[in-house]
Amino acid sequence: MNNLIGVYTIWYRDVLRFWYDKARMLSALLFPVFFLFIFGSGLQRSIGPMGGGVDFIQFMYPGIIGMSVLMGSFMSGVSVVWDREFGFLKEVLVAPISRISVALGRTLGAATVATIQGIMILVLAPVIKVSLSIWIVLALIPLMFLLAASMGSLGILLASRIKSTEAFQAIMQMLMFPMIFLSGVFFPMQDLPGWMSFIVKINPASYGVAAIRGLVLGNPPDSPFTIYLFGHAMTIWENVIIMAAFGFIMIILAMWSFGRQE
User: Is residue 53 left, alpha or beta, with left meaning phi > 0 and alpha meaning psi from -120 to 50?
Assistant: First the structure.
């Protein structure tokens, strides 16, 4: 029972901090909007239609949802490093709860906050002229949560081994931005150079973005937005399975890492 209360308390603290931080909430909305409208509008005319009656801004829209979720969850690891520097993490680790509960609570908190950020971007769908039924929205929420939990557990795993906020931010930027740009957020994942295609396919975020895009825009067999793995066109469910497997491995490693904290 203590462990369940501990998980809930840590989760609730992270969600509450986000809810009362209005500047953070505003930036979580404005930063993706900046990419969507300025970057998308600037390139839409030169790139042209993306196929299937989808223009470049509509193509980017589900990718921006994935980017917002990825960034929100991955950056949550900063709070772990911050808590370590100010002594709060030490107090949590000596509490009468298992350290696995600490890692799980942190991951769930990061995933919840990042999912809220993704939901905030969904309100832009009418502006982008993307039609989302209530069933698509209901399917997107657990999918965003899965992507957030997978990326959040990776961020928390790294944060559990890094001692300073400055070092974590540097490593975070070194990993996060290549993961975003090489996940298909800004370009289709077909007809890429061989080396880039390989990186896209080993990037776990690619499968989360592809699954979100498949739900939002549709994913027919001949879609130019489909990931091909060993010549096989990946379905939405196959993308979800790969993302779930990656997330499972990351959360296990994060729990193990927290168990070795001193």
Answer: left
